[in-house]
């Protein structure tokens, strides 16, 4: 598989460093509220990435963390009067439920920050010892970015007009600090009254880890110093991933991630979908309007991951129509496939182009288009070839994590019902509206709804 690497700024071939298992890390959700479908653009694309590798025969090791302690989780848990653990457990379960609805495979390992405080403290201690970090007067510890000359390579800081504050007087203490300035960032935050019960011991006094550190510590624990790929939404490139690189490279040596995979944002009306802007949709919001998680997934796959994608309700309508079309074609193939067909492997058959699109920088939009082209050929096949095409269709859909809706089942209308409907058509042609209504009521009593159409009627079970 080939993928664009943010650091190298080019498309690269991906092969596992150890020759066996592709080991990758994704920054996970901050569990303080429901994830929105913008967050899910990132998680769904990471899921297709993994499914593509696995469908191609590679083993994977997928690690994704839960941010269960930071400024936001603490603030919100206090607002609703719950302990941090109770509060984050609730939102973690909700997140898992949404991931299931969206057919996102659970990561192999899902570590939480709170469970890894000792590992984070150990990493800070190493950074202090090696001269990359310093404690301030209040017991907080900061990373000294001047001690790591390679700082800024991922986000190409040298090409951006950022305010460079590489001195100890410029420090950022908030988890999500001003993205337009470069400064020493916090590794350990000394205990403050507003933290409530949420503090842990450390050599620098009580406090809690800064947000950027957790990923570095958990990566070291589960993937080691050098691993295949690291991923998140584009907003994480700077400063979060830049800071992770600095911490990990300075504490552990090693190369850290061999490839960086960043997903562009889901937008609404040209702006980023985000909680602070109040323009976000959750799966639940959309379900209330009758949209399924699979339709949302289809929309999220309908653009290339390196370009922002604008979310609209029209795109949901288009997704519904597209999946119904696919389902209908699948049903036609199933009807033509012999029940006792013995399948020989044809790989992706008519969907080879779709498979190639996925492997070519995860072109999900191209893959969806190629499925329709493939289906035009596939529906012309008969017998064993139809069975093979159907198996290939399911294979490519599995790689995309799409489950088709059940195509509308064709219903057999009993003869006596048809007789009543015909009778009603006759009286309508004779303009006997009263009798027409009587017959409509009779049909309704027998469990059928009749709808008049231009050239006759439509019957549906009610
Ligand atoms: P958070 O829960 O805020 O830490 O975000 C979880 C993931 O969603 C991160 O990888 C973010 O980069 C990503 N993300 C946040 N907003 C969007 C968006 N509008 N579109 C795509 N990804 C996003
Ligand atoms: Zn991270």
Question: Which labels suit this protein?
Answer:
single chain; 462 residues; alpha/beta; Rossmann fold; 3 domains; six-stranded mixed sheet; four-stranded parallel sheet; 14 helices; 42% helix; elongated; binds adenosine monophosphate; binds zinc ion
Account of the protein in words:
- The chain contains 14 helices and 17 strands.
- By secondary structure, the protein is of the alpha/beta class.
- It has three domains: 2-263, HUPs (Rossmann fold); 268-400, no CATH class; 415-461.
- The strands form five sheets. Strands 5, 6, 7, 8, 9 and 10 form a six-stranded mixed β-sheet that branches.
- β1 (2-5) and β2 form a beta hairpin.
- The longest helix is centred in the C-terminal third of the chain and has 24 residues, at 313-336.
- It is elongated.
- Residues 27, 29-30, 38-39, 41-42, 67, 232-233, 235-236, 263, 265-266, 272-274 line the site of adenosine monophosphate (AMP).
- Zinc ion binds next to α6.
How is the secondary structure organized here?
Elements: E1 2-5, E2 10-13, E3 21-26, H1 37-55, E4 59-64, H2 71-80, H3 84-101, H4 117-129, E5 133-135, E6 141-143, E7 163-165, E8 171-172, E9 181-190, E10 207-209, H5 211-222, E11 226-233, H6 237-252, E12 256-263, E13 266-268, E14 271-272, H7 283-288, H8 293-301, E15 309-310, H9 313-336, H10 352-359, H11 364-378, H12 383-400, H13 415-429, H14 433-445, E16 448-453, E17 456-461
Parallel strand pairs: 3-4, 3-11, 7-9, 8-9, 11-12, 13-15
Antiparallel strand pairs: 1-2, 5-6, 6-9, 9-10, 13-14, 16-17
Zinc ion binds next to helix 6.
